[in-house]
Write a structure and sequence with these properties.
Two copies of one chain form a homodimer. With about 400 residues, chain A is α/β, with parallel strands linked by helices. Chain A folds into two domains: about 170 residues, Carbamate kinase (3-Layer(aba) Sandwich), CATH 3.40.1160; about 160 residues, VC0802-like, CATH 3.30.2130.10. Chain A is built from twelve helices and 20 strands. In chain A, the strands form five sheets. Chain A has an eight-stranded mixed beta sheet with strand order 3-6-2-1-9-11-12-10, with helices on both faces. In chain A, strands 13-18-20-19 form a four-stranded antiparallel beta sheet. In chain A, strands 15-16-14-17 form a four-stranded antiparallel beta sheet, covered by helices on one side. The longest helix of chain A has 25 residues. At the A-B interface, helix 1, helix 2 and helix 3 of A face helix 1, helix 2 and helix 3 of B.
Chain lengths: ~400, ~400
């Protein structure tokens, strides 16, 4: 059971978490718990480090920020003891959770589960500090922001846990953003591959690295709400999903910008001459299309992160003479919409369905890219909600109309 | 160099501490630093533990509260790095500072200084978390409130330091409380024995246990201000004090209450029958006098901590029949005033000087007790200031009149 910062934000919520843990124990399960720092604590600690020296030693940064999780482990152990659940806190160095030496963004190298398993066998709930470990030189390390999910999955793998429950402030993974599509449905199950594609296109439920790790070690992950009392979404191996949806979800990312380089001479090596310098400038290029013209030139269109747009234009400007292109067009008003589903592997026609649904709504597709389990299109930003709804309906994902809700302030 | 909570209360003060450390390094000294938690942090952490469960597991309490010092070590190391001083934080378990298993009030058993000395030899300043250590089972332990002084003295002993400088919010040890006697003088040197007697009678400069430890390992301790830039008071072996004052200081304690048990039958074993049950009830009895009457009875007078007064009366009430005393008189309006000085060993007449000085002011002495280097008297509370001033003058401790100060708000 892993509880994030908002789930342990104050003493009342820590008591609530303790009650949740007790219920699992009472149901006969052996449970280990991973906790984040109390919401806000990490931000305060990070700010102190940056205020003292923006170029601080990351080893000392780790010492300071890891204290946040330490506090939560002790408090939760006390709260569990208070309601009669035997519990014991574990810091990263005590387990130990061994990491590499990349302080501030360390990778877990191994976790020794023996001591925790002995605790659990003796009826004691281990409460483990997420986000932290111990580096090869014996100093405290941290896994980078959001790393508590990673801690939980790695620990579940080390303990060979039946399941890794990630308690958070959403109650599962949806077929799309419920704020756009009220008839979006919560998925009972989703495969690692689908979860990864959804995470990388903007569904912020689970950190990408933790999904990768879960897939690697086949850890069954459940995403569920710490505030509501119902099952969440199970992230599992594709084989565990009996009825595979052709499309499991529609995701969107509004963090994109489109660049078109007009009338580049169409000769071998021109793509390398264009994208090499962008890669060297650490600019991540996503979708790429190339239209060959009749006059020996070509138009290259691609997307970059919107934050990188200005820098991309700078790099392109330095290439104007060597590449010999005519002009650069930039458009930040775009959105990438993706349909994701492992069922695509065996079902043809997903792209065709997608294009037809968008055409019916009069939405022009600017760029298309596909992978084994994903089709993405770039459209004008103003079509975001319309396109998401059209595709959600086209792929049969709509659930029943939600009951009318009282207006909340 | 040890800095307490008020000295590291915020980032500005931590920067100030870093500058102090740099100055010592620049002067060619090899320095190790011990720090407390930022002022207020420990209280918050303790409150959380108590709010969750007043009967919390002390091992988890230690995990929670030790995080306070951890934060300060990292922040000070960063602040030192910023001004070009190489530094490295050390937690109790990293040094390691080994303690016994008495969580929440552990005793230091050993400190391995090798790694710290290697750091220092390499020009790196170790910044060590005070107040904490590691218990035999590998869990975090704390030394009890005020334990950072103890950490500093123990570390100084382990490193065979030339001196242990305790930076605090007073600038040294005075001949008496300067708020009562403006002509009180700061002592350049004071012996361990004198410091212990002064600490035990209410001068709250250094924690008693840390003075005991300094005496045991002959650690030279300097008490000085972290806010003002001048020498403090050196606490040293008696042999290092050339000009021994007969009386080095006048201390007072207003935390006492006087009890008189009237007309106890004067037979062997009566004192044991009286004080045995009080000791069993964990009540600490301090000064004791017994007046033998002519009628086969005796009056027993003694002092207890004022907080224990009610419980003392309860215990005595249960003894009325077995002891056969007449009545119990209780007086909380008393103050204990003590003259302390190692010079008493070779100078007779200290008690006589004390009694004469008090008599001249018309102050009645209620109880007297003496030790090798201390004479204490109990007087009515209303005479506190008058008695302290009279004794300060009588023993020749008055310094020059302080310069007139601007009134401060």
């Amino acid at each position: 059971m892993k509880f994030g910062g908002t789930s342990v934000a104050d003493l009342d919520r820590i008591r609530h978490v303790a009650a949740r843990v007790k219920r699992e124990c009472d149901a006969g399960h052996q449970v280990a718990v991973v906790v984040s720092a109390m919401a806000g604590a990490t931000n305060q600690l990070v700010k102190w480090c940056n205020d003292l020296d923006p170029l601080h030693d990351p080893r000392e940064y780790d010492v300071v920020v890891a204290s946040g999780e330490q506090v939560t482990t002790g408090l939760l152990a006390i709260a569990l003891g208070k309601i009669g659940v035997k519990a014991r806190s574990w810091q990263g160095w005590q387990v130990p959770v061994r990491t590499d030496a990349a302080h501030g963004k360390a990778r877990v190298e191994s976790i020794e589960g023996a001591a925790l398993l002995a605790d659990m066998a003796a009826g004691v709930v281990p409460v483990v500090a997420g986000f932290q470990g111990v580096a090869p030189d014996g100093r405290i390390s941290t896994l980078g922001r959001g790393g508590s999910d990673l801690s939980a999955v790695a620990l579940a793998a080390a303990l060979k846990a039946d399941r890794c429950d990630i308690y958070t402030d959403v109650d599962g993974v949806y077929t799309t953003d419920p704020r756009i599509v009220p008839r979006a449905r919560k998925l009972e199950r989703i495969s690692y591959e689908e979860m990864l594609e959804l995470a990388s296109v903007g569904a912020k439920v689970l950190q990408t690295r933790s999904v990768e790790l879960a897939m690697k070690y086949r850890v069954r992950v459940q995403v569920l709400s710490s505030f509501e009392d119902r099952p969440g979404t199970l992230v599992v191996d594709e084989d565990e999903i009996v009825e595979k949806l052709t499309v499991a979800g529609i995701a969107y990312s509004a963090e994109e910008a489109k660049i078109t380089v007009r009338r580049v001479p169409d000769r071998p090596g021109v793509a390398a001459a264009l994208f090499g310098p962008l890669a060297a400038a650490n600019i991540n290029v996503d979708m790429i299309v190339q239209n060959v013209g009749a006059d020996g030139t070509t138009d290259m269109t691609f997307t970059v992160g919107r934050a990188d747009l200005a820098r991309t234009q700078e790099v392109l400007a330095t290439l104007k003479d060597s590449l010999g292109y005519q002009s650069v067009l930039a458009d930040p008003h775009v959105v990438k919409i993706s349909a994701v589903g492992v069922g695509m592997r065996s079902h043809a026609g997903v792209a065709a369905t997608m294009f037809r649904a968008l055409a019916e709504k009069g939405i022009n597709i600017q760029v298309i890219s596909t992978s084994e389990i994903k089709v993405s299109v770039l459209v004008a930003a103003e079509y975001r909600e319309l396109a998401v709804r059209a595709l959600h309906t086209a792929f049969g994902l709509d659930g029943p109309e939600p009951p009318a809700k009282e207006e909340e302030e």
